């Protein structure tokens, strides 16, 4: 074992052991060697923890492996928390097995509808150190959340009703994380907005924590999702140049080069403490003031409580605001709510009655043309979504939103629907002679989101502000890029696949976003930057692109500096220190 692995091994023992009984719960994401499996922390709020997934694009991935210390020898019954992610009249796509001390347990897993405990088999444990492996059988997104070793053959059903608290009991977790850290500013979400907020605040001398649930920064711009940054730099060119991307095609591997630049530049700031692979899971407010944000490491399970006088929510999904009780909106407003109708486009632009359609989420993907033929299986579980659609790569318009699906609560279903669309469309395309040499090179497993919760500020930004080019006295962000709002193609033509979208473009001259849309209306010490800023559904259409959201982040970082200087909350920067704030922004170029 290498020194690093040994250290991790010792740390992970805490995460594995249940001190009170011989039963042992092993969180799959904390496996020491992930092999070809990936840690998926996107659905923690629904699942109770991240899980491991065999994202092999049709080729079984190498085994994940770990070592666990058993205090008692004897016979154990073994369960895995898993699911058949496409139940139906076909072989489950994500099948796998568990190997314990070299013995492959009898049952194939990943075969039951919905997340539940599946029985893997019985094993005799004769040593204290036990090796566990996950053996992927398909390469098609098998998933394992946790493994449970029990001395009795009783399925751990209570876990299904309240898994998060059951886990807490199993691990003997305290409510308050033992480790606490205090900062001038705590930023959650390391997309372009969060990165820009961290840099601008740090440049002014603030001690900043940036909490991000992925190993790399950039959110949708990261090499993991691969969207290029659009928009203008406004007053923040110098800052945004440290973290932006070139205009490579969506899904291109070139995202890697800008990734290195972004990560290096943020890490260079001594007063930014970067918490990569940490996911915030709670925030509490007292008298409408956030006192702390709690976060957990996505693989070790270690926890930290972050305290600060002020916080930034740049999670995209408005999580910090949501947990703290901030007012927010979701879905499309009725056209009359803010007077945003565009007659030419009718319902597709802004509906008569409010609904839950928003701009959808995407999974980008790429192919590689090789010198020889590559087989790809026919997939009945995928073709029921793809139908006869054929494609060898994806673009931004591979996008999914439905009135009955919530972009946060149903995000796993949305991601999985996109995976079925991708694998099925590729399988269809591979039947054609001209595509025989194509091979899947990269399919993201992270869902790239465009829209979900929008936190409400003192001002709600709408399409009218674009049309009128409202020059707010507190304008801190500016943009010239056209407004584009998306709709699902099948809303216009029922024969179109439901996973493809269309964009409606509105050409515009310069428009501005006011500072009052960047802090919460009712949570006194909360800023928001990014797609969860205060706006209507149509109002988000323009400013959601990443240089504009980056400007929001940079503006918020500077506002936090004024807050610190005078010991005030975000609103008072507007009411008492606006000119000083605008002067500070003016100096940034
Ligand atoms: C397919 C696609 C194409 C697009 N095309 C373009 C384009 O060409 N150009 C452009 O500029 N924009 C484009 N957009 C829009 C743009 O990418 C988004 O609007 C933008 O990324 C929003 O920025 P953000 O910083 O608010 O959120 P994100 O980029 O989503 O970043 C937020 C980050 O916070 C992290 N996070 C969330 N919750 C937590 C938590 N609890 N704890 C810790 N971390 C957390 C997430 O992992 C995420 O990485 C596109 C979007 C998609 C999906």
Description of the structure:
By secondary structure, this protein is α+β, with helices and mostly antiparallel strands. The chain is 25% helix and 26% strand. It contains 17 helices and 29 strands. Strands 1, 2, 3, 5, 8 and 10 form a six-stranded antiparallel β-sheet that branches. Helix 10 packs across helix 11 and helix 15 crosses helix 17. The longest helix has 21 residues. The protein is globular and about 70 Å long. The N terminus is likely disordered. The chain binds flavin-adenine dinucleotide (FAD). The site of flavin-adenine dinucleotide (FAD) has 38 residues, from helix 5, strand 13, strand 15 and helix 15.
In summary, what is this structure?
The chain is of the alpha+beta class. The chain has 17 helices and 29 strands.
Topology:
Blueprint: H1 3-16, E1 24-27, E2 38-40, H2 44-47, E3 51-55, E4 64-69, E5 74-82, E6 96-100, E7 103-104, E8 116-125, E9 129-136, E10 140-150, H3 158-161, H4 163-171, E11 179-182, E12 185-188, H5 192-203, E13 208-212, H6 237-241, H7 255-267, E14 272-276, E15 278-286, E16 289-297, E17 303-307, E18 310-313, H8 319-324, E19 328-329, H9 335-338, E20 361-362, E21 365-369, H10 380-386, E22 399-400, H11 411-430, E23 438-443, E24 454-455, H12 463-467, E25 475-479, E26 483-488, H13 489-492, E27 501-506, E28 511-514, E29 526-528, H14 537-540, H15 546-566, H16 570-576, H17 578-586
Parallel strand pairs: 11-17, 12-13, 12-18, 13-14, 18-29
Antiparallel strand pairs: 1-10, 2-3, 3-10, 4-9, 5-8, 5-10, 6-7, 6-9, 15-16, 16-17, 19-24, 20-22, 21-23, 25-28, 26-27
Helix pairs in contact: 5-15, 10-11, 15-17
